[in-house]
Design goal:
Blueprint: H1 6-17, E1 33-37, E2 45-51, E3 54-60, H2 94-112
Antiparallel strand pairs: 1-2, 2-3
Subcellular location: Cytoplasm; Nucleus, Nucleolus
InterPro entries: ExoRNase_PH_dom1 (IPR001247), Exosome_comp_Rrp42_subfam (IPR050590), PNPase/RNase_PH_dom_sf (IPR027408), Ribosomal_Su5_D2-typ_SF (IPR020568)
Domain Exoribonuclease phosphorolytic: 29-111
């Protein structure tokens, strides 16, 4: 448990030993989870996921384009994450731009590979 004080660590360990969380649930009780799809009509795919008080909305847009001259038989995937200022005050102003950029790069490395990600090989044959 990095970044926690000794008191916080003791509190968490005590809760685990007593099978009790701070919100009253036991270790094996999960928050309610709901998933709705097709919530953004302009997107090719979208979903809203709610877990407790946390809500995430994700959407996918797809466009067809011409391959590059160097790789005429391969497609292209671009990834962009947008952290909406309506989601939390911390996303207002430049805070959301930095987080959006960081998440976009991390997701791209995870899915497509890169300097620190093995990635999945996504090759589209046209």
């Amino acid at each position: 448990m990095v970044g926690l004080s000794e008191g916080e660590k003791h509190f968490i360990r005590g809760g685990i030993a007593q099978d009790l969380r701070a919100d009253g649930r036991t270790r094996l009780q999960f928050r309610a989870l709901t998933v709705e799809t097709g919530i953004i009509p302009q997107a090719n795919g979208s979903a809203r996921v709610r877990m407790g008080a946390t809500e995430v909305i994700a959407s996918v847009k797809a466009e067809l384009g011409k391959p590059t001259i160097l790789h005429p038989d391969k497609g292209k995937v671009s990834i962009y994450v947008d952290c909406s200022p309506t989601a939390a005050p911390m996303f207002e102003g430049r805070g959301s731009e930095e987080l959006s950029a960081e998440l976009s790069v991390a997701l791209q490395r995870c899915l497509l590979g890169g300097k620190s990600g093995a990635g999945l090989q996504l090759i589209y044959r046209l």
